[in-house]
């Protein structure tokens, strides 16, 4: 387990690691805009292995699948070979590191049409100094010819979505495009998350 206390100071003392990006106010009905960036937080680790399933067989929690496409700036053209670097907390809200085989971390490449799929468990909420964060999964998505984006995916119905997010105005858990509804599918919960990258 990573020591959250050791990094809380860094989280609040350092400027928010927010990358430039526009926010999409509406989901599929909204205008075509790049997926918005969000706070990276202190728990990213480089070097996570390539794998479809971030959760080992014994990992506790509700099994989920996140499925979607990485799209170019026209919001239609799939980006082949885009890299999704993904990290999340466990069901109790704890992050884990290299010494636990990069538990709940992984890298996934999109297919020829830009599609990807991730299997994991639903992360738990975790407490910060001033309240609770909504459950979330961190992503950094990069692809040749496009600007990388670091963002977070949230879950519909979470009681700590903004304006109740302890991250306050630094995070953007009110971005409808990044709030995913989970629906039962084949013994797990499935959510859809499409990402639009800005050409660069
Ligand atoms: Fe986080």
Task: Offer a concise description of the structure.
The chain is mainly beta. The protein has one domain (4-196): Aromatic compound dioxygenase (Protocatechuate 3,4-Dioxygenase, subunit A).
Task: Explain what this protein looks like in three dimensions.
This protein has 200 residues and is mainly β. The chain has one helix spanning 4-13; strands at residues 63-71, 83-88, 105-109, 115-121, 126-128, 131-133, 136-142, 149-155, 179-180, 183-185, 188-192, 195-196. It is globular, with a radius of gyration of 16 Å. It has one domain: Protocatechuate 3,4-Dioxygenase, subunit A, CATH 2.60.130. A hairpin with a 2-residue loop joins β5 (126-128) and β6 (131-133). Bound molecules: fe (ii) ion.
- What is the name of the CATH superfamily? Aromatic compound dioxygenase
| CATH topology call | Protocatechuate 3,4-Dioxygenase, subunit A
* Secondary structure tally: strands: 12
Query: Mind describing the biggest β-sheet?
Result: 5 strands, mixed
Secondary-structure element order, N to C: HEEEEEEEEEEEE
What count of domains describes the coordinates?
1
Spell out the key features of this protein.
single chain; 200 residues; mainly beta; Protocatechuate 3,4-Dioxygenase, subunit A; 5-stranded mixed β-sheet; globular; binds fe (ii) ion
Give the arrangement of secondary structure elements:
Blueprint: H1 4-13, E1 63-71, E2 83-88, E3 105-109, E4 115-121, E5 126-128, E6 131-133, E7 136-142, E8 149-155, E9 179-180, E10 183-185, E11 188-192, E12 195-196
Parallel strand pairs: 1-11, 1-12, 8-9
Antiparallel strand pairs: 1-4, 2-3, 2-7, 5-6, 7-8, 10-11
The protein binds fe (ii) ion.
């Amino acid at each position: 387990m990573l020591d959250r206390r050791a990094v809380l100071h860094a989280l609040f003392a350092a400027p928010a690691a927010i990358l430039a990006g526009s926010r999409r106010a509406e989901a599929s009905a909204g205008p075509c805009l790049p997926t918005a960036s969000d706070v990276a937080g202190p728990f990213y680790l480089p070097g996570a292995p390539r794998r479809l399933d971030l959760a080992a067989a014994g990992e506790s929690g509700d099994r989920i699948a996140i499925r979607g496409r990485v799209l170019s700036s026209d919001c239609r053209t799939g980006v082949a070979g885009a890299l999704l670097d993904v990290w999340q907390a466990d069901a109790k809200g704890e992050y884990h590191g290299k010494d636990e085989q990069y538990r709940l971390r992984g890298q996934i490449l999109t297919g020829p049409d830009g599609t990807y799929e991730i299997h994991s468990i639903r992360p738990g909420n975790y407490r910060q100094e001033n309240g609770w964060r909504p459950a979330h999964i961190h992503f950094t998505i990069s692809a040749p010819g496009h600007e990388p984006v670091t963002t977070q995916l949230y879950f519909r119905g979470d009681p700590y979505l903004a304006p109740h997010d302890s991250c306050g105005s630094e995070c953007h858990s009110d971005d409808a495009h990044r709030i995913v509804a989970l629906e039962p599918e084949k013994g797990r919960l499935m959510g859809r998350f499409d990402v639009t990258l800005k050409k660069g």
